[in-house]
Amino acid sequence: MDICGSMRVQTINGKKYILVIVDDYSWFTWVKFLRSKDETPTVVIKFLKQIQVGLNKTVRFICTDNGTEFVNKTLYDYYEDVGIFHQTTVPRSPQQNDVVERRNRTLVEAARTMLIFSKAPMFLWAEAVATACYTQNRSLIHTRHDKTLYELVHNKKPDVTFFRVFGALCYPTNDSEDLGKLQPTADIGIFVGYAPSRK
Q1: Residue ranges of the domains in the chain?
Q2: pLDDT computed for residue 135 by the predictor
Q3: Which has the least CB within 10 A, 119, 126, 168, 191?
Q4: pTM of the entire structure?
Q5: What is the CA angle 67-72-76, rounded to 5?
Q6: Which CATH number fits domain 2-154: 3.90.550.10, 3.90.950.10, 1.10.443.10, 3.30.420.10?
Q7: Residue range 103-132: mean pLDDT, rounded
């Protein structure tokens, strides 16, 4: 678990921080957006309850840095009640939390690229980060298991048939059978460069 931010531009609803949570076994990633670091204990506790019910798994260990957003009485008491071991890294050594630190950088760089390529306004950075996280969970292959991160967590292949280009105003609704009949979903938009042999 790690917090990334603060971002230079707030989202429409005032979010400035990204809480990145990575499962150590599968590297499946969740992102939560926060207005301030003070929200972290509430969001972490709510996330842990949801994930244990939703995936029917027990969380046993949590690894974070020594930031006060993770090392505080609220979270300490919660971990004590539910039997979670909290491991912290040595101060000033982000290398010990390297999986989540790399994922932070990957998500932010992917979001920045998506925003620049789509010419979207910068306040949409949270949507870009969420989209990057969603697509990476369903497209990156864990080399040790030769499966996507989604497959390792949910035990089924992800459905990626509905993926669209980030920021696209329109897209084809058919499956490359007849690309001559594109149906836009927006009032304005144009496609350039679609070959009939490609999806």
Answers
A1: 2-154, 168-199
A2: 92
A3: 119
A4: 0.80
A5: 120
A6: 3.30.420.10
A7: 92
